[in-house]
Records
---
Amino acid sequence: MIRVINALLAIIGGVGGALLLYWILNKLAEMLPQKWEERVKPWVFILPALAAISLFLIYPAVRTIVLSFANSTSTAWVGLENYTDLLGSRDFQITLGNTLLWIAVVPAVVVALGLGVAVLADRLGAQGEKLTKSTIFLPMAISGVGAATIWRFVYEARPAGEPQIGIQNAVWTALGFDPVAWLTVDTLRFNSFLLMIVVIWAQVGFSMVLLSAAVKGVPVDTLEAARIDGANERQIFFRVTVPQIWGTVITVFITVLITVLKAFDIVFVMTNGNFNTDIIAVRFFNELFRNGDNGRAAAIVVMLMIAVIPVVAYQVRHFRAEEAAR
Amino acid sequence: MTTTGTTPPPTPVPGEVKPRRAMPRGRRGAGAPGAGTGRASPVVRIVLLLICFLWLVPTIGIIVTSFRTADAALSSGWWTVITSPLDFTQWTITNYRQAWDAGMGNSFLNSFAVTLPATIIPIMIAAFAAYAFTFMEFPFRDTLFVVIVALLVVPNQVALVPLLRLYTDFNLTGQFAAVYLAHIGFGMPLAIYILRNYMSTLPKAVIESAKIDGASHFKTFWRLIVPMSVPALASFAIFQFLWVWNDLLIALLYLGPGDKAVVTVTVAGLVGQQNQGWQLLTAGAILSMVVPVAVFIALQRYFVRGLTAGSVKG
């Protein structure tokens, strides 16, 4: 109970304190001569937000880059050793390879499935469409830990001869095979694909909602015109609809890509990176938390930052173009 | 599950949301005539039915299991209840009581202690900043905003190592404040982005006339802009609430397991203790999902609006 009261106090203190700060700064600004007041006021309004961003994102990001050149306890410089050690270890190469596999598979599948469901559900009646979409959208509210629990139960294996309580092995044994501990099967990265299914399951709803809004926003006259010209449904979809929703497709793709890059909880809870399923965000956690190696953890994050640079560049360009069109 | 909104009249459906800068002409709004009723062939219906079935089955599995006794859950698959739903010896609610006592009850309060400040405090700070970015002129305004846009896609991991050290220096590790302060910082770019995008769609004339009437920026902000921005404020609040409640990484790093564990950390711990049995783990997992799912269903309309506003969070 005290916790909740403390939380409420924190809220009152945080909100009240911030309000008081704004009020005082605003009063101070108003005491300045008119010309200066106009100049200072915007900074009064954005200063607390900038302070939070600087303290919690920009300063730590810079510090992370610095720490990546230091040893595990950040007490001595080691140059590029963290990077060379990581990139030279077979273990980390597997981690990187898995991450690339995730990047190659998950965003594309999520976009394709989301678009597919959006377009097909669009043909149902209003009631059916709502129901379908809501079902697919459901996992968006479920945490990674919850999703991992749900799917571990699907993949659960019991020794042969005992009743199977995981549905995948129940089906598998009913077909006459021996039960398999699915999450340990790393032939052709099979278990990694099983983990990807969980992320796909969780993300398709997001993709569907955005793409559905985009599909419904395609002007009807363009579809009609194509139909009159004798195009079939498939041609209309690929030649008329898809080009017009391409912007949204890219947005969804990028968002899922970022989600995949920092995906942590599902893999952490389901395999903790064992059985060759490790990915970069789980490896980061284990370096930092299990091994207490600040230097390597920081080096992994720096690699992540480098991987994100093209996305940042795209994001900024996209934003500029949107602003110009405003 | 996201189906039913609480307010009957405009039932929120994901797809119903209008695109941000909706063009007035030639759009086929949901419910408009010709919005595809019955165009679906039987094949399409079957495919969609199958997808929905596949999407639901895993979740139904843990819901059913959470209400079965330990014996029943271990000796037969959960789907067998279809043939014997009236065999009441298999049903129980003790799993929930056990999970609650095994730490979930405690974690439940902890999650609120982290999530509420992390959701509410950033809103006002971001609203002030968004107002300045939208309605005020100052040097480097556009550059600063571009930095915020860029930060939207930067993974939070970049901040975690130095923050851990900073928190240790300030004796904050293991305090709720460590987690919610981090979330306030991490959520700030998204908050400013959503609010600024929304505010820039508000009619400029209203602000201009307030200025002519001699209202200060402070007054305009409180009396006009904040009340008009409620939908965007709600969008962000829901995002942030789900985000923080469902987060595992930051809570695990800065609070860890034990007395102050939040629900995600406790459930992750239950997963590790295989001997506890599935009936307990499933009950714990469902307890951890109840709040976000309820929030999500009740306020889905705002959530979807936030999504379609093109928000990307790193």
---
Amino acid sequence: MLLDQNELTIYDVDSFLSLLLQEFEKDEIELDFQNVNKIDMSFIQLLVSAQKSANTENKSFIITNVNEEVKKLFTTSACTFLLGGKNEQ
Amino acid sequence: MNSDVELFYEDAKEQLLFMENALITMQENGVDEESLGALFRAMHTIKGTAGMFGYDEVVGFTHVAENLLSEVRQGNVELTPDMIDTFLEAKDHSSSLIELSVHEEDLDDETLKTQEHLLMVLTNMMPGGDANSLQKDKTNDVAKENQNESIEEERLWHISFRLKQHFYTTGMDIINTLDYFNLLGELKNVLPITSHVPLLKDIKPTEAYMGYEILFLSDAPYAEIEEVFEFIMDAIELKIFKADDKKALLEHIEESSKDEELQEKLIKSGFYKNEYFAEPKKKEATKTEKLEHVKKVPKKVEEKKSFSLRVDSSKIDQLINKISEMVIANAKISQRADTLNDSDMIESATILSDMLEEIRSGVMNIRMVQVGDSFNKFKRIVHDVSKKVGKDITFEIQGGETELDKMVVEKISDPIMHMLRNSIDHGIETAEDRALSGKEGGGKVTLNTYPDSGTIVIEIEDDGKGLPRDLILQKAIDNGIIDENHKLSDKDIYNLIFLPGLSTAKEVSDISGRGVGMDVVKRNIEALRGTVDIDSTEGKGSKFTIRLPLTLAIIDGFLVQSGNTKYIIPLDMIQECIELDETYKSQMKGNEYLNLRDFMLPILDIRSYFNETESKSERLNIVVVRYGDYKIGMMVDELYGEFQTVIKPIGSIFNKVPGISGGTILGSGEIALIFDIPKLMEHKISEIN
């Protein structure tokens, strides 16, 4: 799924959740971040939930094309595990 | 701007003001601990709060300034007058950075240039400082500067927080908070606690579930770390303790929820070694206060809540409005009770009106601020302007503790600023001229505020050359404002400068003298129902006296009747009431003067002034009022007594009626007109002259 919003924050989480739930009808969930330039904690939290759900349902969950700016936000929040990095929970 | 940013903006402006006051105080009286502390705290607070909002430009700049200040505080650098000037510039620059940040604008070229210049100057002032060190990585910079002060273990803090469910309603992003720690020290380990994040099918995405465990290396004291969370204190559960405080750690783990498996995770993420928990308590908490810290946090939140709060002033206005309506409604009840002669009801109405009075003064009090806080900014203006015109000027603020309605204080600011500039630019002479006229040393400008019979008086006095009486006169005649055969007193002539287009400054400077201004000043003051007056002696100096009413919405009035109309006189201005008996009448002999204990009291006959029909009352009364230096007696028919008066504006058709400033509604539904005492006096005095 290509995320087409520049910023994904608390204002978007509700609508993003419905998109995610639709996406979860597939077995392989891929979120393409190429258009995303800013995220906040509420959005990261939603990604954590998505990753957890994928794990319990035995689905694959990957985030791709994260730019430096957003990567920095993942690093600061110590949530790089969402990107398939270390410190997996 | 959202409300949080607005809050930040307001707070930052206040902090900038503190900074400026501290700097100016030190500029004048030399460096002192207290001002230095205040300056440091203000700079630090701005840096901290800007960090919370991710305003990197502000943080980066104030950080450099703060570093230098901290060197000054430690006595490594001396705070020279030049440095104070630089800090003043830094303060201005911080202010523009904040402006740009909150309005989400990029730095323009000029700001960038100033920034570059200031950063260089500030860095050069650092001990062993040279501009190159600027290039150093900020994080390293902070971390390094204190490196050798103590060994790592003792500087390691364990910070733990869980976002409360409603966290996101604060509008703050915790990522910025985490990022901010990089400026305060070094984040050794950050562990997100995600155990409480539900699966997609159960999640409520606008509620918060996350938490963090952090190992943080810093020399910052407990309070400073806690301060990072200042704005989100009631939206998180926070614990801060030294990492070597095992007791606190065990307690923390004990208190954490089971699903977090906190101990295992902390070990797994390298916070603590496995053995640390297995070992018997080797390192008992050495200081008892450490444990107290852990417990103090939630308690402190409660205390802060009742501390102080910022409220939109319009909410208070609404409240005052409502109370005003209640005052009127209650007046009706009182009246009705009187008519019915119902003693129970009269008593209740009296109690109610007493309580209303208490509420009213309570609410009015909220709006009152000490003028000193706001007036202190003039110090900077005087400092800058006198520097610009090259005059040596001492500026003194007296009566800063006088309280005045906040709105009035804000609105009176511009007129005062204008008059101060005038005093410095035109009033005070240059050093040579002063020496010539035998005056010693530099000029002196005083801003004096004090309460006086229900009004607040603000005086701006200088010991300069005074107003050029003849020049003003000539110009007024040239402009056709007055006739050559005028009979104006000196005071009247000075007051001419308040007319539009009458600047007497020979040279127009960029500070004042454009001839717009004094008329605007007067209009602004009159819009606040105030008056302004001038006293001047050529060669000695001038004094501008502004007189303002204490409040704008409700006044304590005194109800009187003359002819068929009821009038209100502001109670604060009333000195006494006299019944005009036959003795007095015979003394007057038809003149409009009264011998009041050997004082010639001019009398204004209200009935004839307002063309009232014959009175039905058999008595005549004199109400003696005082305003400023003047005293007159108002001749009215009936005195009714004190009345809480809600000032209502009257229609524009009354604009041209001098002597009436507003109206009010009485309990009976009748309308009473409020006297504009200054105007009535003006009329009487000009009549005498």
